[in-house]
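User: These chains co-purify. Model them together.
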Amino acid sequence: MDVDILFFASYRDLTGTPGLRLTLPPGATVEELVRTVRERGEAFLHLPARPAVAVNHTVVPHGHVLTDGDEVAFLPPVAGG
Amino acid sequence: MDVDILFFASYRDLTGTPGLRLTLPPGATVEELVRTVRERGEAFLHLPARPAVAVNHTVVPHGHVLTDGDEVAFLPPVAGG
Amino acid sequence: MTARITSEPIDPEALRGAGAGDGAELLFLGVVRNHAEGRPVRGMRYEAYGEMAERVLAEIVREAEARHAVSRVAAVHRVGELAVGEVSVAILVAAPHRDAAYGASRFVIEQIKRRLPVWKHEHFADGASRWVAGVPLAPESAG
Amino acid sequence: MTARITSEPIDPEALRGAGAGDGAELLFLGVVRNHAEGRPVRGMRYEAYGEMAERVLAEIVREAEARHAVSRVAAVHRVGELAVGEVSVAILVAAPHRDAAYGASRFVIEQIKRRLPVWKHEHFADGASRWVAGVPLAPESAG
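Assistant: Joint model of the four components:
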């Protein structure tokens, strides 16, 4: 299955990209996705091991199971207002 | 000595007048003034025996000693805002 | 510092004016409501002891500035006949941080209700009217 | 109910609109400050995860309406490059009584700071810039 990954703010600066598409085995969890992303190497290793992650605009636990076509966003600590 | 007396809001309605001038013996206190005013009769007896009183724009205790030319205001409970 | 009793309609926008060091602005407006204790109201007449009210309002504003880390406090109270929806009081606070803005704003409105020599005469829709029950003034410690 | 993320300058007056049953209106404005931790700042870039931010802001506004006796809550958050003095966030609450207005206003700004997926990049006067340290998001219980 394919998921779309987005990096915001400082995470975009760290990875050098606003996002990427990843193919994962069916039933993969957020935890597995994060590990896969960080294993891409150097720049992606700058991401924290347990970042806040939103799937389709809702922040989920890392045990959350992904579905084909999900939008997965890596969200740095927020600073609105 | 002469003092100017003002009645506001419900006190003006009770007494039927916005104010009056009173001549008092030198050294008279607010307490004596209030008694003198209420002794004028009927309408003035509707005033409370211990109203809040401001002398020259400052609320004072009833023991406050008056001076010639003072402006003395009878102030009902306030309801601004 | 602005503290004013006015018979003219209040323009809240005219009170604004944060400085470059401010991160928060808070504008409170008191508005004439269309009901009181369940009865329909069609308007309100505000009366003030003008000279004293301006002095007390200025004191309240200065106290708010002394107690809270704010850069600007402005308070204006209206008098006269007001229709439902009209602004009776406006309080503007500008401050570096929002805590101080909320604290100062709340302080000013609570003190106005406790200390300002202002009275209001409620006009009910059925033609009756009455003075709104208020808070007795206590002698001022200083002054 | 108004909850909006916008790249246009915010017009606070446009948010106003008390109903006839309201006795209080409270407008909070967050403004870009000229300093941060003692360093001069010349501006700020706000970035949002747009679709999610609109959903979360609407949730916050609905929660404020459910928890406080208010008649209207509107919240708008700006994104893009802002100069010192520009409004980054505006929150308008109208309510029958002031307690609810202050409570709801405070609730909305605190929740925005805790939950809204928005980030800010501070531009210092000396040319340096950095992402402002923020609050980690926690998984949402409902949703």
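Chain B has a mean pLDDT of 97.
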